[in-house]
Design brief:
globular; Sufe protein. Chain: A; alpha+beta; 152 residues
Length: 152
């Protein structure tokens, strides 16, 4: 029963993602691909006052990576950069820790816990998160880059 509920949550975020869109004027952005399965994702964020004011993704790939990206964007919106990086670490821990209980802060992402039964799919679920962390690291490392990320 719980497995069915989790499947529904994943499908809902995959089939009707609220956050799959281009984010004009993004302050932080990164692109990553998983060469093993072909998933590709771009994660973008607008940062105001040290908080992620908006987040979005563009992707081509499996339902797991896209659902994870949609849930991630919902969860990180309004968080500080440090809090978003911490959530990425918590999500990674949840996906690798078979004994521990997930943090309540992970919300719908708990549905992806069932993916752990399929180790090759864990990378799909983590792809948006590693891309987010990369985008935020680039944002912090290169202030000059900030003014050109969203420009096109």
């Amino acid at each position: 029963m719980l497995e069915d509920l989790y499947r529904e949550v994943i499908l809902r975020h995959y089939q009707d993602p609220a956050n799959r869109r281009k984010l004009p004027n993004a302050d932080a952005q990164s692109f990553t691909q998983n060469p093993l399965c072909g998933d590709e994702i771009t994660v973008a964020a607008c940062i105001e006052g040290g908080r992620l004011a908006d987040a979005a993704f563009e992707a081509r790939g499996c339902s797991i990576s896209q659902a994870s990206a949609d849930m991630m964007a919902d969860l990180i919106r309004g968080k500080t950069i440090d809090a978003a990086v911490q959530l990425a670490a918590e999500f990674k821990r949840m996906m690798s820790d078979t004994d521990g209980e997930p943090s309540d802060e992970l919300g719908d992402l708990v549905a992806l816990r069932s993916i752990r039964k399929y180790p090759v799919r864990i990378k799909c679920a983590l792809l948006p998160w590693t891309t987010l962390v990369d985008a935020l690291q680039k944002y912090r490392a290169d202030p000059a880059e900030r003014s050109t990320v969203g420009a096109s």
